[in-house]
Please model this.
Amino acid sequence: IDSFDSHLYKSIFKSNFTYRQIDCFCICYQKYLIERCSCYDLVYHNVIDAKPCLTAKENECLTNVYLDFADNFNNLCK
Model:
């Protein structure tokens, strides 16, 4: 599959952001976080319709997901 045909690239393209590889990682992280915690991290761009992580429980989930993502992003972002 051509890297420019990925779901992450298409998400960036639709958002009107200029494509940068780092944005693909950020969107991949946000997607994974939303799937696991039902909220997004305010620190990074988000192009997925979701609410921000604001409560203590959501922020605890965010921390756990961030650590998991840091260890596994190669498997999660394809």
About this structure: The chain has three helices and no strands. The longest helix spans residues 56-76. The chain has a mean pLDDT of 82. Residues 16 and 58 are 28 Å apart (CA to CA).
